[in-house]
UniProtKB/TrEMBL annotation:
Residues 1-22 form the signal peptide. Pfam families: BPD_transp_2. GO terms for cellular component: plasma membrane. GO terms for biological process: D-alanine transmembrane transport; L-alanine transport; L-isoleucine import across plasma membrane. One of its GO terms (molecular function) is L-valine transmembrane transporter activity. Belongs to the binding-protein-dependent transport system permease family. LivHM subfamily. It comes from Azospirillum doebereinerae. The keyword Disulfide bond does not apply. Keywords: Amino-acid transport, Cell inner membrane, Cell membrane, Membrane, Signal, Transmembrane, Transmembrane helix, Transport. It is a multi-pass membrane protein. This is Branched-chain amino acid ABC transporter permease. It is found in: Cell membrane. InterPro entries: ABC_transp_permease, BCAA_transport_permease.
């Protein structure tokens, strides 16, 4: 354990830089007047969660919230970082080749406007001694949202593994399904004028959770229950097959294009600043934190104070013994898969409404990272899943902010490798045998 803590300390000391590339930010902001005639206010820049070549700017004009996304040939510090490849807006989606070519011609002949959130808006005064610490605090706030996504999905992995000793690799695809359904529902709410109405958003979340919970239940009832006594790698192979089937099914039904829902709860709150840098938080970030905390507390209460929770703990200790004393193992496992599917849907909804850019492949890498978070925290441990998600979110966000973004995933999975070598049971997991 001491060795792991020393390795963690060494890793965090390394995280001490490049955030959003200023040149990419300025170039993307220069494109906004091509789509807007009114002055731009409250512009805020972020990078896409999955493709770090994409810079997205949320802004307000004429009292309405809009966004523009620019994809470059390379991420920050990489070759091609200022070569624009594609542009999308909340009104048009990704521009077709002809419109994009016309936009490139427009930017060559159009001088930059001073009301389009120019580069001066990024740094308003010389840095002070507090600026690095404020930037650090901003990364902690940004990491909290990422940690919520990983933590929620890691809970689904850990609940299933705790009771079966098997990893359902198709859980990431339930996140993708949740993200796609949320994106489509958000588009419908936008057309109805209810995009920022909290009860409507909550209703969408409940419906999506119900759908993916039913998908999780069906996975167990139709597939994994039949393989429960199998002592080979067949369940793992079947899970990979389910993952591919979900990906291809969604691709054939909805195509391979990205969905970019309009941002919701995008009001920005300035927390603290020194003139050179201001720490901000969005209403959506606060809502995500509150939602994740509430769901975790609800799950903890279910696991500790309900008959299902007692049955789950009994099956976790020894499935055969639990069955002998009258526990309905099949029902307990099915509910566990349903809960995992519902939590995966919440993670997908966060990805869709906060990050955007969801497609049929969204759940693949997210699923593996959430599995890494579950292993780091101690797969089988509910608190460990949230701890692992928080740790992975911090490492990813800090690395993206201070170092070359291209190596972010290498660092994340390198951390997983260290834990598998030196502490396979994770931070909060306990080495134990399983009774079948």
């Amino acid at each position: 354990m001491l060795r792991i803590l020393l390795l963690l300390a060494a890793s965090l000391l390394l995280l001490s830089g490049c955030g959003i590339d200023a040149d990419q930010d300025v170039l993307c902001r220069r494109l906004i007047p091509a789509f807007e005639s009114d002055p731009i206010t409250d512009a805020w820049t972020r990078m896409d969660a999955e493709d770090r070549r994409v810079v997205r700017i949320d802004y307000r004009t004429g009292g309405e919230a809009h966004w523009i996304a620019c994809r470059y040939a390379g991420a920050a510090t990489e070759a091609g970082r200022t070569v624009l490849e594609a542009v999308a807006t909340d009104r048009t989606g990704w521009l077709p080749p002809m419109r994009f070519a016309m936009l490139e011609q427009w930017i060559r002949i159009k001088p930059p406007r001073h009301d389009a959130a120019p580069a001066a808006a990024i740094v308003r005064s010389p840095p002070t001694a507090w600026t690095p610490w404020l930037f650090l605090l901003q990364q902690v706030i940004n990491a909290a949202t990422v940690a919520c996504v990983y933590g929620l999905l890691a809970l689904g992995y850990t609940l299933v593994y705790a009771i079966l000793g098997q990893i359902n690799l198709a859980m990431g695809e339930l996140t993708m399904v949740g993200a796609m359904l949320t994106a489509m529902a958000a588009a419908g709410l936008g057309m109805a004028g209810w995009a920022d109405w909290p009860p409507a958003l909550l209703g969408v979340l409940v419906l999506v959770m119900g759908f993916t919970a039913a998908q999780g239940w069906a996975m167990d009832r139709l597939v994994f229950r039949r393989l429960r006594k199998t002592r080979s790698h067949t369940p793992l192979i079947v899970a990979v097959g389910l993952s591919v089937a979900y990906q291809e099914g969604v691709r054939l039904l909805h195509g391979a294009r990205d969905w970019w829902p309009a941002p919701v709860l995008a009001d920005r709150h300035d927390l603290i600043g020194d003139g050179a840098f201001t720490v901000t938080a969005l209403s959506s970030q606060l809502a995500i934190l509150a939602l994740t905390g509430g769901l975790y507390a609800l799950l903890w209460g279910i696991m500790q104070r309900t008959p299902f929770g007692r049955a789950h703990r009994a099956c976790t200790d020894d499935v055969a013994a639990a069955e002998l004393v009258g526990v309905d193992v099949n029902r307990t496992v099915a509910i566990t898969f349903a809960i995992g599917g519902g939590l995966a849907a919440v993670a997908g909804a966060v990805i869709a409404l906060y990050y955007g850019g969801v497609n049929f492949f969204t759940g693949y890498l997210i699923g593996f990272k959430a599995l890494a978070a579950a292993v780091v925290g101690g797969i089988g441990s509910v608190p460990g899943a949230m701890l692992g998600g928080a740790l992975l979110g911090l490492v990813e966000t800090f690395w993206s902010a201070y170092f070359v973004i291209a190596y972010k995933d290498i660092v994340a999975f390198g951390l997983l490798t260290l834990f598998l070598i030196y502490r396979p049971q994770g931070l909060l997991g306990q080495p134990r045998g399983r009774g079948d």
